Amino acid sequence: MGYPNARQMPPPGAAQRGGPPVASYAAPAQSAPAPVASPAPAGPTSLLPPPPANAIQAGLRAGPEFSALGLTDATARPALVSFRESCPALVNRRDPSGLVQPEDWQRICASATQWPADNAAGFFYAHFETVVVGDGRAFVTGYYEPEIAGVRQRQPGYDTPVYAVPPDLVHARPGDAPVRPNGMTPFGRYDQNGQFTGYFDRAQIESGILAGRGLEIGWVADPVELFFLQVQGSGRLRGPDGSVIRIGYAADNGLSYVNIGAAMRERGLIGTGPGQYPGSMQGIMQYIREHPEQGQALMLQNRSYVFFRELTGDGPIGALGVPVRANVSIAVDPLFIPLGAPVALQMDRSAVSGLWVAQDTGGAIKGANRIDSFWGAGQEARTIAGGMASRGAAVVLLPRGALARAMARGAAQ
């Protein structure tokens, strides 16, 4: 679908651009992957191999020469600024992809602090090598920071609660649940017998199971807008008096995100024919509003539910615990692209082509070269992000020497 980004990021405390197109490398002459792959049939009838678990299994090879990336100081400067902001989170961080070690970042970040902005392209030439993960074919969607009608205290017309993290929502203790790829155990709760179990799902929460517990940090006018703000993971509540409350992801209920656009496509509701809707965020919202009962049932298929915290300071916070920046920050699957790594994109939409920095993750951003681009706040950002569905090629910039080390590790396995 055109809008499969679940902005479900690690909680606080967890390791929680622009310019012309990248020039002359291209995606392989093959059909691009579907935005959302259908799962393989269960059981012995499936002949499909399991998907690769990480970048090494997906395959690595040297990318194009830097001259093919078309970097200029002007186009590379925003990426250098965002890379510097990532450095405090990178230098002691374990990289789940296995492609980068902390000392790689320590060396590069020490240089970044002194590097002149008027030679930004030179910074990337000096410290990085180009690498293609898998076949290099990328699929890119967009996300943004929504602004919806909301207030701090309940009042007429503002009846849908925005919840903070319930005290009984916790990470499973080690050994009580499998560790996820991000190195953390899932969210859930412990029952009266001390057994770890799943938390309440979306239907239970929207039916009021958490009401009266003092968890409301705000109230919004439109539950559909809140649903999509949860998908984005952060946003702004604007009151009728012009006041603004900024909120960001704090936790989720531990249940898997379900892509409601994919569900619509399976039912034949997305397309260009009579009675069908565009596969963008705007098209999905239109269907929900024009078919309230079916739309509510559709949203409830996504049993995942996001809890928020109030944000202060600069920008939405990404998975590295630093602000994400419009036109420069992307969300990636950290098993395939290390957080902190610059990524050069050449896509079939020039707006998303250029040099970006991996600073975020997302519940639906899974697999090699599956990328979500951040477009900021406001109506223009909403329009671009909601309709972003672009295909092309991705080149990851890794610290020099990382490719040979990773390939040697793969050969030894």
Helix-strand layout with pairing:
Elements: H1 55-58, E1 60-62, H2 73-90, H3 102-112, H4 120-127, E2 128-133, E3 137-145, E4 147-151, E5 160-163, E6 170-171, E7 187-190, E8 196-197, H5 202-206, E9 216-220, H6 223-232, E10 234-238, E11 244-252, H7 260-266, H8 281-290, H9 292-300, E12 306-310, E13 329-331, E14 342-347, E15 354-360, E16 370-377, H10 379-387, E17 389-399, H11 402-412
Parallel strand pairs: 3-16, 4-10, 13-15
Antiparallel strand pairs: 1-2, 2-17, 3-17, 4-9, 5-9, 6-7, 7-8, 10-11, 11-12, 13-16, 14-15, 14-17
Helix pairs in contact: 2-3, 2-4, 8-9
Taking strands numbered 1, 2, ... along the chain, how are they ordered across the largest sheet?
3-16-13-15-14-17
Counting DSSP H or I runs of 4 or more residues, the number of helices is: 11
Uncertain runs: 1-46
Largest beta-sheet characterization: 6 strands, mixed, barrel
Give me the CATH superfamily of the largest domain: RlpA-like domain
Oligomer: single chain
| End-to-end distance | 36 Å
Structural class assignment: alpha+beta
The chain-level mean pLDDT equals 86
List the domain count as a whole number: 2
Biased composition (Low complexity): 14-35
Region (Disordered): 1-54
EC number: 4.2.2.n1
Domain Lytic transglycosylase MltA: 147-309
